[in-house]
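S1.2 Input.
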Amino acid sequence: MGFGGAQGMITSLKNNSRRNKREAFDGWTSSDKESNGIKIEPVSEEILTEIRNKIQKQNRITTIKIIAVITIGIITTAWLLF
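S1.3 Output.
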């Protein structure tokens, strides 16, 4: 079973490429490099503050859980060793 080498691989990738067959996002143009088709809606500062606070609270809870698991693991390991 022969292989085409590097050139065969490149040809195969070009033949399988779907870039020419798919369409861009609705509302996207090639000159619009900033948004790339994602429509950005303005959000009030109150909503952003709520989101930030919610994420910070979730991160605090996750950190506390991780610290608790590590502490219990260290205590259990120390207890088993002695």
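S1.4 Remarks. The mean pLDDT is 81.
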